[in-house]
């Protein structure tokens, strides 16, 4: 597993534990006791380090190559997933996955970004940066869900929509704006969760929901730290300064009222215990759906609109 720069103390402890297990008699009670003590120290150190991450360190965790992605969560918490392909206009963008699914007793339409694991899959998924056809596919799936009165569940994990020439020619900005409008009026419950990166319009394009949550070490922002640093300070070396200024972490956004809930991650991040992270994410979806499916649709749509109107502060 790839280690992050701030995890050096953890690496040293893990190396000591492995050395003891390899070079000592593990049947000896004193050796077992020492290993148990070191593991407890490792656990406490993980909690301490991850409870005091800087904004840029949080971004590094959100991008960890072993962090669970949409297809991983589908495997761990979703039943009977039947994928829907294509936008019926241009093609099938693999950066966004859609399909019918079940979360316990709830039938849902799942929509989520997927970055890919190995190089081949990442290239196929365009590293999670969707083209217009990906968002058109998402809109088609959501309208289908509303037609059959099935809730929509969205998993957000993208550095942003793809900014290339072809993407612009096919109307990426227009379809994201249209999708945001249609989601605000969608006559079915919509529950969203940022599971990794939540970058720019690429993220909010599928994040207009009745409830929006974030995994503890994810981020959600109008722009990536590197993009912000490039614009304001003309250099990516100021990315840590930009990350601090953007207030993009889950705790910041909960205080600002942009999200409703922070989903706690396992000690050391979701990549260290994907199944525990998946269990907590599933519990959030179950609790949200239980609450939302009871509400009249007209009232739900009105509250969703008002929710986004309340975000932000201004002076007249």
Describe the overall structure.
By secondary structure, the chain is of the alpha/beta class. The chain has 14 helices and eight strands. Helix 9 (200-204) links the parallel strand 5 and strand 6 (211-215). Helix 3 (55-62) packs across helix 11 (239-246). It is globular.
Radius of gyration: 21 Å
Tell me about the largest β-sheet: 8 strands, mixed
| Poorly predicted regions | none
Q: What's the helical proportion of residues?
A: 40-55%
Shape: globular
Based on secondary structure, the structural category is: alpha/beta
Query: Can you count the beta strands?
Result: 8
Task: Report mean pLDDT, rounded to a whole number.
Answer: 90
Helix count equals 14
Strand proportion: 15-25%
Q: How would you spell out the order of helices and strands?
A: HHHHEEEHHEHHEHEEHHHEHH
* Cα separation of the termini: 52 Å
Q: Which characteristics define this entry?
A:
single chain, 316 residues, alpha/beta, 8-stranded mixed β-sheet, 14 helices, 8 strands, 49% helix, 16% strand, globular
Can you lay out the helices and strands and say which pair or pack?
Blueprint: H1 8-23, H2 29-50, H3 55-62, H4 70-77, E1 79-84, E2 96-103, E3 106-113, H5 119-124, H6 132-147, E4 152-158, H7 165-169, H8 172-185, E5 190-199, H9 200-204, E6 211-215, E7 219-221, H10 225-232, H11 239-246, H12 250-255, E8 261-263, H13 274-292, H14 297-309
Parallel strand pairs: 3-4, 4-5, 5-6, 5-7, 6-8
Antiparallel strand pairs: 1-2, 2-3
Helix pairs in contact: 1-2, 3-11, 6-8, 10-11
């Amino acid at each position: 597993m790839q280690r992050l720069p701030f995890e050096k103390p953890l690496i040293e402890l893990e190396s000591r534990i492995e050395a003891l297990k390899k070079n000592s008699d593990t049947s000896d009670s004193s050796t077992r006791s020492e290993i148990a003590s070191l593991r407890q120290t490792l656990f406490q150190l993980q909690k301490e380090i991850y409870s005091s991450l800087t904004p840029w360190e949080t971004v590094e965790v959100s991008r960890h190559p072993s962090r669970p992605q949409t297809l991983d969560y589908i495997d761990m918490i979703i039943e009977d997933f039947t994928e829907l392909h294509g936008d019926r206009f241009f093609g099938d963008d693999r950066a966004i996955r859609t399909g019918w699914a079940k979360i316990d007793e709830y039938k849902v339409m799942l929509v989520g970004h997927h970055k890919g694991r190995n190089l081949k899959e990442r290239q196929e998924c365009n590293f999670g940066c969707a083209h217009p056809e990906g968002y058109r596919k998402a809109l088609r799936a959501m309208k289908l869900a509303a037609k059959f009165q099935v809730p929509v569940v969205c998993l957000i994990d993208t550095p942003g929509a793809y900014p290339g020439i072809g993407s612009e020619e096919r109307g990426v900005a227009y379809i994201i704006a249209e999708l945001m409008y249609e989601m605000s009026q969608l006559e079915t419950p919509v529950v969203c969760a940022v599971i990794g990166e939540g970058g720019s319009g690429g993220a909010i394009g599928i994040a207009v929901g009745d409830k929006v949550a974030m995994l503890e070490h994810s981020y959600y922002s109008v722009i990536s730290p590197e993009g912000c640093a490039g614009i304001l300070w003309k250099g990516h070396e100021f990315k840590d300064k930009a990350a601090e200024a953007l207030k993009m972490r889950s705790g910041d956004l909960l205080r600002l009222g942009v999200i409703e809930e922070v989903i706690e991650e396992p000690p050391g991040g979701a990549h260290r215990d994907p199944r525990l992270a998946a269990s907590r994410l599933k519990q959030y979806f179950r609790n949200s759906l239980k609450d939302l499916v009871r509400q009249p649709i007209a009232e739900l749509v009105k509250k969703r609109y008002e929710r986004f109107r309340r975000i932000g502060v201004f002076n007249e």
